[in-house]
From TrEMBL:
Family, per entry: Belongs to the Dps family.
InterPro entries according to UniProt: DPS_DNA-bd, DPS_DNA-bd_CS, Ferritin-like, Ferritin-like_SF, Ferritin_DPS_dom
Region annotation Disordered: where it falls in the sequence: 1-22, 185-222
Name of the molecule in the record: Starvation-inducible DNA-binding protein
Key word DNA-binding present: yes
Keyword Ribonucleoprotein set for record: no
């Protein structure tokens, strides 16, 4: 059956208002940070805002979907961390505005700009979610430290102090996550004379232990 000639073709507006990657708008302020530095700082802070918002949604995803014997403990931990990330995002957006910038923090802006990899969606039980989150939290922590250096290079100690505070809290939750996965200490360095370390002798053949055992407990050494 043919379409009537005068019938308008249906169009989807799903992507019509999709944000582009344009830089944030700037507004007049009497803040004495030089204009060029302020623009760079706004770009930096918006990048951290995108990363933080992305990681927040990933943490809520884990909070809703985690299964297994550790469900309730991890359900609460993930929710607590998500609350912290929400506060971080709010502080970042407010700092952008204080510098005369536009905080670009919608969901679509976040998806366009985040540097955080997508969380794995094939995981089910607690240790799998913990490892998936820990990997992405470690990326975010490293990016925050880079942001501290960049803020100092642009003569803004206040932004550097803010990022330092956020970095400290993110590191704390990285510790909380990794503590669920750590089973044994890393192996000591080998002797300079070429001998194997004590830990390698126990394992045999000098094999390195796996980083994490997803959902399994390590075999006890006899």
């Amino acid at each position: 059956m043919s379409r009537p000639e005068n019938r308008p073709e249906r169009r989807s507006n799903r992507h019509e208002n999709r944000p582009d990657n344009q830089t944030a708008r700037m507004f007049f302020t009497q803040n004495d940070v030089p204009d060029d530095d302020r623009r760079a700082l706004v770009e930096l802070l918006n990048q951290e805002l995108a990363d933080t918002t992305d990681l927040l949604t990933q943490t809520k995803y884990a909070h809703w979907n985690v299964k297994g014997m550790q469900f309730y403990q991890l359900h609460l931990l993930f929710d607590e961390f998500a609350d912290v990330l929400f506060e971080h995002g709010d502080e970042l957006g407010e700092r952008v505005a204080a510098l005369g910038g536009e905080a670009r923090g919608t969901v679509r802006m976040t998806a366009e700009n985040s540097r955080i990899p997508e969380i794995r969606t094939d995981v089910v039980i607690g240790p799998q979610y913990v490892e998936a989150l820990a990997n992405n939290v470690s990326i975010h922590a490293a990016n925050l430290r880079g942001g501290i250096d960049a803020a100092e290079a642009h003569n803004d100690q206040d932004t550097a102090d803010l990022l330092t505070e956020l970095s400290r809290e993110v590191d704390q939750y990285l510790w909380f996550l990794e503590a669920h996965l750590q089973r044994e200490p890393i192996q000591p360095a080998m002797e300079e004379r070429g001998g194997r370390s004590e830990g390698e002798q126990e394992q045999g053949h000098g094999e390195r232990p796996q980083r994490y055992q997803q959902g399994t407990a390590p075999t006890r050494q006899q």
